[in-house]
Amino acid sequence: MSISKLKVDNHDVLISREIEQAPIKTMVRELVQNGFEAEREYKYQKKVVEFYATALEFENGETVKKLSIKNNGVGMTDKELYTSTNLSASIRKTMGKNHNYGIGGKVSGLRSNPEGMRYRSCCEGVVSEVTILKEGDFYGREKDEDTNAEVFNVTDEYTEYDVLEDWTEVTLYGNKITDNTISNPFGSDYPVSENWLNVLLNHRYYRFPKNTDVIYHEGILSKAQGKRNLPSWEEMINNKPTIKHETVATECGYSIIYALNKAEGWNVHRHSAKSCGSLVYKNEMFDVASGNNDKLITKSWGQTAPKLGIPFGSRDLCVFVELDDDYPVSMNAYRNEIQSSIGEKISLEDFGREIAELMPQWVKEFIDTERNKHNGSNDSMKKRIAELIKNLALSQNQYQPRKNGAVLTEPLNGTTGVFRDGLPTNKRPKKKRYIVAKPGGKKPSSINKGLRDMPEWSFITEKLEVSEKGLDGYAASYVNEANQIFINATHHIFKQKQSELENEFASVMSNETGSKVVLQHYQDEYAFNLISSVIFARSEWKQNRWDTEMLKDATSKPSLTISLAKDSAMIGRIKTRLGNNSELKAIKLVVSNG
Fold first, then answer.
1. Of 148-162, 192-206, 390-404, 530-544, which has the strongest mean pLDDT?
2. What is the C-alpha to C-alpha distance for residues 353 and 222, in angstroms, rounded to an integer?
3. What is the model's pTM?
């Protein structure tokens, strides 16, 4: 039996839908990638991708800056340039699912630049120009109304020096012709910071191809910025003396890179990259969680890191999970996600257990140092909580490394691969210095005793850290994967109840020891409210009375905040407990005797 190929009846609708559904944030990647993949005339010629401003002059003499991206690959003739501006067309590149579709740069570019994308290419001293744009409801090439020409020779605009070597340039005209596409690349409906370009590139490429430079010319990142090369993450990690790093290889087709930087920033410009975590596949970064407070990267590293066994210190730590080129995943059509063989998105959290288990000792020690800077878990409270856990027989798997550096993970089904169809699940990553529980083996004794079932809790007092952990406006959060509760000590509920308690014990608050006793009891009771909520919710879930969504809802930030707000009896309970405190009684007696 043979088949008849399907055809497209309405090309205009198909093209419009393809462009208008494209993610705008992939535009820069696509145009840079075109430069990386462009052929070079000379084998050892350095690849260069440059960003610079082009002044567009209007008939009234006014000018506006447009962003241009240029590469020094082999240029295109007028006919090749015409062909390359068709969708699903590419010059001198391999087409296919895992290679090129010939649509990325044009589709994502036109989404943000309906006023036009001007392509110019110099080939053997001749510069040709084609502009693609949207007019009305249709997308097409700009053409001369008299001659119907769509490709123009603009060589006369350049000096002899400008055309000595081949190059190709794309200039972005924007959402409106008056837009400055250096500062306003996506139109007024989507304003961005002046650091937008750096954010997108810093969070897209873990490494650049060999013998390749990415260059920002003057004024691209800020008015004060001079010409500079953009370093890749790999380059920064390997070459910056303040960064300590280690790569842990596994037998499952990927490696994990841990990097710690105690300096102020990760690169040299004032728009420094912040710490982050991501998957890396074929040199590119996916599912990026960033410490940059920028809406272009919506996933927060401060909130993601605890799920990977990094409850503290994420501001200075980066983690990259690099998949081998033959790992059984592929990029989606828009190249902004990687997915399994059945089309499911692969995320950084899918490797959370492995990141925690294979964490080098020096990383664990750094995390513990950062943990110890916070008030929180203490022995007296743990005894109180242990009784709850014992009565409820609650069991918990968590990704947080033990403080003594031992392996923590409880094997669920004897596998620690990515739990998705079509991906390896029958191998456990190993490294000689680590002791990893064997499939089907007994659980560590500490788990049998329930010591790992107890949530850790910490009070967050620094406003920046409150924001990093997503606690703005919330009293607390619970990270199930790490079995960790973060308590916002800047929240108005915490301050209100503390003030109320201090008024009740005003007579001893001027005494250093008395104040310490009162505030410790307050923190313990405040934390116990949250810990109890989490433990009871997990108990209901474990006994199949609640499903996973109900568990998530009960331990969500809004639910925990409401639990504290409704606890009107908290101060009364603390007064009762403190009423029997011998130390406080002695202090009261001393104070009263003056």
1. 148-162
2. 40
3. 0.83
